[in-house]
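Input record (Table S2, row 452):
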Amino acid sequence: MKQPDKPHQVHIETFGCQMNEYDSELVRSLLRKAGFELTEDRERADVVLMNTCAIRENAHNKVYGHLAELKAVKDQRPLVVGVLGCMAQNLKEELTEKQPLVDVLVGPDGYRQLPGLLTKALHAGEQGLAQGGLAVDLSEYETYDDILPERDGGINAWIAIMRGCDNFCSFCVVPYTRGRERSRDPEGVLREVEAAVEAGHTQITLLGQNVNSYRSDDWDFARLILAVAEVPGVQRVRFTSPHPKDFPAALFDAVAGHPNICKHIHLPLQSGNDRILELMNRTYSRKEYLDLAAHVRSRHPGIALTTDIICGFGSETEADFLDTYRLVQEVRYHSAFVFKYSERKNTIAARKFPDDIPEEVKGERVSRLVDLQRPITAGLNRDLIGQTLPVMVEGDSKRSPDQWMGRTDTNITVIWNKSDAPASLGSIQPVTILDASAAVLMGRRHSTATLS
Ligand code: SF4
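Output record (iron/sulfur cluster complex):
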């Protein structure tokens, strides 16, 4: 290991959702304060941490693949390996027994203990969880409210306003890996927003597993998002992911009425069939969901709706699937993330509903929905041709360093040439849309155009 006077180098790899990215930012901050250094280079690291996700099979398999790679490294030189996050919480027995190379195992509520556990493992200088230890107790109170995350830069700052979830959708592992729902104090959230603006972030995205059920004394989500939108220097506010059951009128008023709150709502559907929705414990019916989507559109016709859909949940028939298919036709989402159902250990569905839809049927239903959605997205994008839209500059386009990439407030990607007019990162520019596909809008920044 390192000389005692040299800080230990930690490399963090993050898998899964945006909440995990945010947690890695918290962990970076905690480790830095405790005297560790962070490195992007795994080869130089004394410690490799994997912040893991338990939601989908894919993320799961990737973590096991990386652990196999780390075993080869660990056979060659001293290395402390830590598994953090949802897999550490949900699969602690499996990881403890089958992965003797894991030295430290820390669930989402145990990050404050991480520096101590790493120090112990580094000083023990031997492999195995016995040398480091584990912190996998779920908390009813931990919100990390006093820790300012260490962000990588960029124009967007993700800010978690709550942790955990009480909804217990039958397919979902989150209530077991992240525990019961708890909201941060509004003062802590607003302090973090101010610090993010100070650091150069002009867009804030409020995060929560069930973001719109935020509650802290007499603050609800509508009041909080309005307060965030009013912080000087904040140009745009987004939020993800809301649950369709928590949409009071005040929240519609906030989204429709405040110019800084983006006109985009991600409204996870999961299924368009009442029987499957009930098995999933989603607590809304197909009709209630359709009424909500219609109400959102009536409040702001230009608002973009996006969604998540699961295909092949246990016992889903072709007729059940067609209910989802027809709902997608009716709502005309701006985009949809469509997944094959994958059974997660320890969930209600894993205990009660057999995962009995063949993989090829799940895959075929996913393909049919993707084929349905793509032309809808392309059509909605084409409707924007000729309009001049406010677009926030996010960075270079992937295609060329001579082009900007930005987003409309409905979250659609726009590309235009830097030579059109000067622009700075994080600023909002008027861009006239010239062409559109399902993936992207192509535009031009007229040097004389202004935003009304
Ligand atoms: S609302 Fe449902 S799907 Fe979302 S995190 Fe909570 S239990 Fe999981």
